[in-house]
Amino acid sequence: MKRALGPLCCLLASACGGDPDLASFSDQYCDLLKPCCEQAHLKTDGVSCHAAMNNMAPLLGHYDPVAGGKCISKLKQDSSKFSFCTSGMQIPECDLVFAATAEGAKPGESCVRTSDCATSAEGRAACYASRSADDGPWTSTCMIQVKGAAGDSLCVGETDGNSVVIGSSAPWGSVPVPTKGYLCDTTANLFCDSATRRCEALRAVGESCAGNGECVSGATCDYLPGKCVARLPAGSICISTPFCDASTWCDSSEKCVARVADGAACTTSDQCQENSSCTNGACQDAISRGLTLYCGAP
């Protein structure tokens, strides 16, 4: 679930929470979030947080009060850490607060959301959307997703151990959608090849590629020759921002220029730091954007 929601939404999707009931869990979670809201110069009254919890909880799965208690205890323990608000509050103890149950749909059976799918000791249960052709209807089925090593197939996305990114939406054609899909380990420099649906090593500069996510750090995919090329430093002539290095962007003069800091005025997300975006005319990092949902805009 983390893939669709943002760092703090991820916490809810993974969840959080002595053995509180859902209302008590929400109260404690929102109270723990207040210092983060204040730090981000957002509202601290808790109204938006409680509304988000009430609206999203029914969609996320079955609330487990024991897991909720463990989650809240760990959050309280970590709340004094400097990185508590900026890390996205990714707490392993919170991963089962809202979860599927063993009585859910089996792999390959229809689902609407991940909480419809039965848990599995083998890996992560997920509701996976797919289609057999570009103009075909989308269908969703339960799938067990496990971390993939080089050569593992069939892959459906990537993971760094915390977040999950589901890969290409390319049609499966005549290939049956697997009941077990691999999430290629990006910490091992792997990506999910959308053509072969196999976990492959990131391409080095000069090697063939079909997308930016296929090249090693510091490189990008030049689609014309279909090869990975080194990203360019400040002052270089550029075609688009992916060709500039991580500290720069391609401006209207087609030169790589320095990105602006979070909080600075902007007209496009390219101007902002790589993990930030232009929101309401200012650059915001992912944590701040996620916090806005729970804290409320100032």
Describe the model.
The chain has 298 residues and is α+β, with helices and mostly antiparallel strands. The protein has 6 helices and 15 strands. The strands form 6 sheets. Strands 3-4-7-5-6 form a 5-stranded mixed beta sheet. Helix 3 runs parallel beside helix 5 and helix 3 (22-39) packs across helix 6. It folds into 3 domains: 2-99, no CATH class; 114-201, no CATH class; 232-295, no CATH class. Helices cover 23% and strands 22% of the residues. The protein has helices at 2-5, 7-14, 22-39, 47-60, 65-78, 286-295, and strands at residues 62-63, 98-99, 124-130, 139-148, 155-159, 164-166, 180-185, 190-193, 198-201, 219-222, 227-230, 248-250, 256-258, 276-279, 282-285.
Radius of gyration: 21 Å
Question: What is the subunit arrangement here?
Answer: single chain
- Walk across the major sheet and give the strand order: 3-4-7-5-6
| Strand proportion | 15-25%
Count helical runs.
6
Structural class category = alpha+beta
Rounded mean pLDDT score: 84
Instruction: Specify the overall morphology.
Output: globular
Report on the biggest sheet. 5 strands, mixed
Alpha-carbon distance between the two ends? 27 Å
The structural domain count equals: 3
Order of helices and strands: HHHHEHEEEEEEEEEEEEEEH
Fraction of residues in H or I helices: 10-25%
| Low-pLDDT residue spans | 1-18
Total strand count, please?
15
